[in-house]
Amino acid sequence: MAKRRAARVRPARGAGRTLRVPAAAEVVATRYIESSALVAALLEHDAPARASLRAGGRRVTSALTLAEAHRAIIRARVIGRMTPTQERAAVRALQVFARRCDIVAVTDAILTRVGRPFPVEPIRTLDAVHLATAEVLDDAPQLVTIVTRDSRVRDNARALGYVVE
Questions:
Q1: Residues 6+ apart with CB under 8 A from 31
Q2: What is the pLDDT of residue 19?
Q3: Which of 86, 62, 64 is nearest to 74 (CA)?
């Protein structure tokens, strides 16, 4: 379910009582950040990916995303695509990203969902983990934006009713 802003408490006129005055219902957008978009932002400095990561709303990702991003950073340094200094900067940026996100553990429920068909098959296991993670969120699909650079994730997310960036 979408988060709503808490009601404000204002003093009532007269007897010093307080009344609960509901704030305007404001839906907080949820943005599920998938690994390919994060890696594009960290390693390729992809401007649209970086803008998507900075966009407002609640950021959510899988613990898998952090593991995949760490591996991509290490791989980039080992094959000579980045210097040790660039690697440290990328790791720091990843740590900042992780602090600003709700991180969802890969649970038995997610793994069970991975074992069932998705609308657009074939799909790789790790991509299915990302989609299954988005599905276990409490938000309706139309209220969640999946931020990805992967065509298989994008096609399935759209087929499941998610907004895709």
A1: 52, 55, 57, 58, 59, 60, 144, 145, 147, 165
A2: 41
A3: 86
Instruction: Give the domain extent around 104.
Output: 3-7+29-164
CATH of the domain at 127: 3.40.50.1010
Written as six digits, the tokens of 57 are 């709303």
> What's the token pair of residue 133?
């993670």
Greatest CA span in the chain, whole angstroms? 72
**HSE-up of 90 (CA within 13 Å, CB side)?**
25
Report the number of distinct structural domains present in the chain.
1
At 27, the pLDDT band (50, 70, 90 cuts) reads low
Asked if the structure places residue 50 within a domain, the reply is yes
Token code pair at residue 95: 């740590």
If you average pLDDT over every residue of the chain, what do you get?
Answer: 87
Read off the tokens for 42: 């960290």
Any domain includes 104: yes
